[in-house]
Every structure is written in C-alpha cells, then in structure tokens.
C-alpha cells in the first residue's frame, strides 16, 4: 500500500495508555504540535471524541471496551499505513486489547509504539478534570477504570512516561526524541 503523508513512507501509531486524567490527551496535543512544526503529518484519535461519534453505540462493559479499542486500532492503522503518525490517547484498560492492536500492526508491518502514561491513581484523582473520580467514588459511575474496573498497566511498553512533576510540553519533547528511534519515518528528523 502506498503511503501519502510522509512522501510515500508508512507512518506509525503511537498508543498512549493510562488512567483517566493521566495526561494522555494533553501530551498527545503537545506532541502533535511538535510534529506539525517539523512538517510531519500527524493526527490525534482522542478516545473521548471517538466515543461521541464512531463508538457512540458502545458502553463500558468488557466486550464494548474491547470493541472500542479494536475500532480505534483499525482507524489508527489505516492512517498510519497512509503515512501519518497517529497519536492515540485512549485509556484502553485491558492488555489483551492493546496486544491485539499491536499484533494487527505487526502483521501489516506498520510501526506501533506503546506509551504508558504512568500517572499514579492518586494523582489522577486529585486532578479529576472531568469530575469522574468523584462520581465513581460516590457510586454514580459503574465500571470506572481504576476504581471499580481494572486497569492492566503494560508490563513492557516501549516508553513509560512518569508524569508527576513534569510539564506536558517537556514530556512530549522527550517522547518525540524517543520516537525518532522507534518510528522509521521520523528518523530523518534527527
């Protein structure tokens, strides 16, 4: 398949997983700005936005969460194979779902980088930008990841970001430097 975004080259998927409020979307936004600055075609597939549209028919049970991750993975793969660097900030709580997305990328020889935004639960709860943790603790949200539903952290992600005390822009800049070694289409940016 010919790519389109990076002069015919295949791009890649950068999958940012972590708890709600960990900083996934903020880091992805900063990273996208850096890629835009460098002239790299990039897009963000934000989990919240996709749940409002493409995945609006899905709930939060285990099967629906797995389908959510599968669909997002397929969209990311499509764009990555057309030369985009696709940033995917999605909680994706289950290891099996993330592994399936990786396997699909591997089968089609498309770079996939798993980034664990490893913000501790207590920090995410203190941030609580959407007030979801308060509602989950009050029993108003069932099956909330990290509270009443599990989050399975990746045992060996390509990149682990410890966000506590580090500004998102600095995290994104450091991540870009690591990605230059992990995504062949970005290597020329050294």
CATH level-3 fold name: Rossmann fold
CATH homology-level superfamily: P-loop containing nucleotide triphosphate hydrolases
Provide the helix percentage. 40-55%
Q: How many domains is the backbone divided into?
A: 1
- Uncertain segments are none
Describe it for me?
By secondary structure, the protein is α/β, with parallel strands linked by helices. The protein has one domain (12-183): Rossmann fold (3-Layer(aba) Sandwich). 43% of the residues lie in helices and 12% in strands. Strands 2-3-1-4-5 form a five-stranded parallel β-sheet, with helices on both faces. α1 (24-37) crosses α7 and α3 (62-81) runs parallel beside α4 (95-107). The protein starts with 11 loop residues before the first strand and ends in an 8-residue tail after the last helix. 41% of the residues are buried.
